[in-house]
Amino acid sequence: MQELIEIRRAAKRNVFTTTIIGVFGLLVASQLLIWLPKSAYLIGILLTSFSIVTLLVAFFKFREPLHSFVLSRKTLYFQHKSGRWQLDWNNVQRMGVPRVTKGLDYQELSMVGIKLKSYQPFLAHISPRLISHILMEQRPLLLYGQDREQCNTGNCYGADLLEDDYYKDAEGNTYKGIQAMLANRMQKLRMRLGFDIFIAAGELDRSEHEFVKLLKQCQQHVLVDHTSHI
Q1: Are residues 115 and 95 in contact, defined by beta-carbon separation less than 8 angstroms?
Q2: 176 - beta bridge partners?
Q3: Is the pLDDT confidence value at 214 over 60?
Q4: 3-class DSSP state of 148
Q5: Considering only CA atoms, which of 111, 121, 24, 40 is closest in space to residue 76?
Q6: Four-point Cα dihedral 162, 167, 170, 173, nearest 10
Q7: Rounded distance between C-alpha atoms, residue 129 and residue 214, angstroms
Q8: How large is the average pLDDT for residues 19-32?
């Protein structure tokens, strides 16, 4: 295993191209607003709006760190514009691509799931801003595993959007506030999807299955190295 393996964030791709498109669109829109008759102003306004949105997308892409993951012999390290978290390889129980039932078949989600052995090390190395981002980003996942009768009555979300701000783990550690909310969310999604942490495909530079394979290879190398030193 290499000393460090860096995973480039897919969302960082085409930042320069997106910026050029946005700037070019604004230049064209400004000329249209100058030369077109007032009856055709709507075209210039729509192009201006499109260009501004494109530049905003480029700006948010630019703010993201270049690499989403750094894999070392000791840790799995994730970084985001809202913060970061890290895991020791020996705290990872399993990794895979989450699946949900769709009729009689299974459908894979466009993400990677990680199940932990203990929440405590993870909660100790994650920033409050990133916790807030995760809680918002994961809301669509709450739909999976919902009771169909509830969904038919329009109550799919219900109290699921609100997490308890108190949590006590199996080791006796207690958490309050936003850390407890994340722990309760992780517990809820573990029951429904089998994993605690979910990584969107946009954070990766390869397919979900290829990333899972890489993670398993890294963990296996770490376990072999550890065994050889005992």
Answers
A1: yes
A2: 166
A3: yes
A4: helix
A5: 121
A6: 150
A7: 28
A8: 77
According to DSSP, residue 119 is labeled: S
The structural domains of the chain, with segments of one domain joined by +, span: 11-63, 74-228
Q: Count helices and strands (H / E) in the chain.
A: 7, 11
DSSP 167-214: EE-TTS-EEETHHHHHHHHHHHHHHHHS-SEEEEGGG-SS-HHHHHHH
Task: Indicate the SS3 state at residue 85.
Answer: strand
Mean pLDDT taken over the chain: 81
User: Residue 215 is inside which H or E element, if any?
Assistant: helix 208-228
In this prediction, residue 218 carries a pLDDT of: 87
**Distance, CA of 225 to CA of 230 (rounded, Å):** 9
- When computed from its CA atoms, the radius of gyration of the chain, rounded to whole angstroms, is 22
Q: Which residue did the predictor score with more confidence, 220 or 116?
A: 116
The confidence score (pLDDT) of residue 32 equals: 74
- In this structure, the number of other CB atoms found within 10 A of the CB of residue 204 comes to 22
